[in-house]
Amino acid sequence: MGLEKWLAITSVALFAMFAGEMISVYHFMTNVPEEIEFSITFEPDPKIIQFVSIGIAPAGVLAAVAFIMSKHYGSKTVGGLIIAGGIILFAGMTVSYSMLNSIDEKYLTDAVKLIPLLFMVLSAPVIIVGAYLIKHKKLRPKKEYF
């Protein structure tokens, strides 16, 4: 397996990790235990920024590098993996966004409201890039007979 396939696999794993992290922090904000609520203050913005820098930023970079490495010849495997990463990102952000109604008002900040929407929109270019790799075919070199 080429390096670009391993990079695409890693990017899918990081997309899934980011979606899982966001779902877990949104689930925590819907069900904050009382003993934690009164003993510590929970700020969701730094945690979300941490998840973005740990999960989605490296996932996007790895998907971009895999795309750049295979864009000249096209790759159905790499394209499919990048599409899978975009779908996982979209699904995770959809689940996170659906949890907004049950989150307590004191945890609803601009980042909590806008991050799922932002990454739902940004999952579309990821899927388009993957589709480009699937559709792109390697050009045959011209044979020189003389």
TrEMBL record:
Entry annotated with the keyword Transmembrane: yes
Keywords: Membrane, Transmembrane, Transmembrane helix
Top-level taxonomic group: Archaea
Transmembrane segments: 7-28, 48-69, 81-100, 112-134
Record keyword Transmembrane helix present: yes
Full protein name: Uncharacterized protein
Organism this protein belongs to: Nitrosopumilus zosterae
